[in-house]
Amino acid sequence: MKLPLPLLLLLLLFSATTSAAPSLSPTPSPTISPVPRTSPTPPRTSSSSPLDPKQLKALESLNIPTLKNPCDHHHPSSSKKPPTTVVTCDTGSPFRLVTSLSFTNCSSDLSISSTALKALSPSLTSLSFHNCPSLSPPPHLPDSLHSFSAVSSFPRLSGLSLARLVNLTDLTVSSVPVSTSGLFVVLGNMHDIVSLTISHANLSGNIPKSFHSNLTFIDLSDNLIKGPIPTSITLLSNLKALNLSSNSISGEIPDSIGDLISLKNLSLSSNKLSGPIPDSISSIPDLTHLDLSGNQLNGTVPRFISKMKSLKYLNLANNAFHGVLPFNASFLKKLEVFKVGGNSDLCYNHTVLSSKMKLGIAPCDKHGLPLSPPPRKEDSSSDDDYSEDDSSEKKKEEHHGPNKAVLGVAIGLSSLVFLIIFMILLAKWCG
Ligand SMILES: *[C@@H]1O[C@H](CO)[C@@H](O)[C@H](O)[C@H]1NC(C)=O
Ligand SMILES: *[C@@H]1O[C@H](CO)[C@@H](O)[C@H](O)[C@H]1NC(C)=O
Ligand SMILES: *[C@@H]1O[C@H](CO)[C@@H](O)[C@H](O)[C@H]1NC(C)=O
Ligand SMILES: *[C@@H]1O[C@H](CO)[C@@H](O)[C@H](O)[C@H]1NC(C)=O
Ligand SMILES: *[C@@H]1O[C@H](CO)[C@@H](O)[C@H](O)[C@H]1NC(C)=O
Ligand SMILES: *[C@@H]1O[C@H](CO)[C@@H](O)[C@H](O)[C@H]1NC(C)=O
Ligand SMILES: *[C@@H]1O[C@H](CO)[C@@H](O)[C@H](O)[C@H]1NC(C)=O
Ligand SMILES: *[C@@H]1O[C@H](CO)[C@@H](O)[C@H](O)[C@H]1NC(C)=O
Ligand SMILES: *[C@@H]1O[C@H](CO)[C@@H](O)[C@H](O)[C@H]1NC(C)=O
């Protein structure tokens, strides 16, 4: 009877401390896995076929070590660093073929020869370059590509070389100057294009009159695009995001903009658009992000905007809107970001909205005209920032962390109390 007792106590103590320990520790780290996530490649064991010899040679010419299996190969690196070159292959036999190649932070002696690309070309569907600014663009990009990405790479790219990639579904060019007379040259034969990004690329010309209808994503921000938004763009009923910000686009927002029924993000900011906000915008059911700032839009701010259920980000700053802002505090509280400053003829009803909201516009007089010019200095510092929401957001977030810690401490303490009571009972029972 006496022998098992200390053992039992030890066991109890052990179980109590182990259950309390993880919840008491300040930084539980179950989500951080030491193994870096690799791209979804077929498991290596499923295919032991060697890589096609011609393609092996091509990889060697690109300075990719091929001693071991180059497929799923990550450039030799001290384990912590992300790989700079990633090769993925299919699982074919008798030979595997390279399907995707991605280069990041290329060394300056890298050069992509046409012969190497030709050898890889039949199977290569994805090619990407990230941060390889001095690399010369390959004279002939393989037309087998479904995805091509160049971010801060190459001194420049020609629109014609991109235009040859007729099987692309994804095109991303960012922070690379693209020389072409217009986007229509690039997109002319890309019938399958789904996602299009050409941003910060000095792209000139107009927005094309026709697009291929499967586009779901368009980002043409920060270029030199001129002319109007063609009405035909509103035929893209699958479009989820349209970003035309920071160009020189003029004219009015098409009345049919509401036909873009899948749209979630719309940014037309920093252009030369004029005229009113079309009523049809209110019929886009999932619009969450609407940025019309930095244009010459006029008319009144439409009341229907406050009925748009999904809206989280609304920027109307720096336009020429006039009249009384038709929003109440409960609508503005619902938004994560609201900016309306820089509209000198717009004012807010001070019986509806408090001056503490720092909207960057003047209160209205009884005729609905701005009482006084908005405080200029404050305007530039808090600009059109509506900061009340931000702070309440942060407060909400802070609540999550402590709760778990408190729970952990509670569990730990209660198991300790339980243990002590148990020990007292045991002592009494024995004695
Ligand atoms: C590339 O370089 C940048 C900055 O030099 C670094 O932050 C990044 O981790 C590098 N990426 C890879 C994949 O080596
Ligand atoms: C584009 O894809 C189609 C179908 O997959 C294929 O038949 C055609 O050869 C490809 N075109 C090029 C230029 O690779
Ligand atoms: C759009 O995509 C679908 C399925 O991905 C395809 O069947 C259809 O041909 C495409 N339409 C066009 C115009 O490319
Ligand atoms: C972009 O275009 C402007 C004006 O045409 C030119 O001054 C500038 O050098 C170009 N930038 C690049 C990176 O090509
Ligand atoms: C919309 O914009 C937000 C914020 O910039 C971004 O997080 C989100 O991924 C975008 N959604 C789409 C569909 O592009
Ligand atoms: C549009 O593009 C600009 C510049 O590239 C970027 O800052 C902004 O976040 C984008 N807007 C959306 C809604 O994604
Ligand atoms: C808006 O501006 C256009 C010119 O850009 C002008 O014709 C129109 O009258 C203005 N509308 C209002 C309501 O001020
Ligand atoms: C605020 O405006 C919304 C939308 O117009 C409306 O549904 C709501 O009743 C208004 N709330 C108050 C307190 O007036
Ligand atoms: C401001 O709101 C009050 C209460 O809703 C209303 O009676 C008044 O007419 C409004 N003033 C202006 C200028 O719209």
From TrEMBL:
Signal sequence segment: 1-20
Q: Which UniProt keywords apply?
A: Membrane, Signal, Transmembrane, Transmembrane helix
Q: Where is the composition biased (Pro residues)?
A: 25-43
The answer to whether keyword Membrane applies is: yes
Q: Where is this chain compositionally biased, Acidic residues type?
A: 381-391
Checking SUPFAM superfamilies in the record gives: L domain-like (SSF52058)
Query: Could you name the domain of life of the organism this protein comes from?
Result: Eukaryota
Q: Where are the transmembrane segments?
A: 405-427
| Positions of region (Disordered) | 20-53, 67-86, 368-400
Please give the name of this protein.
Receptor-like protein 51
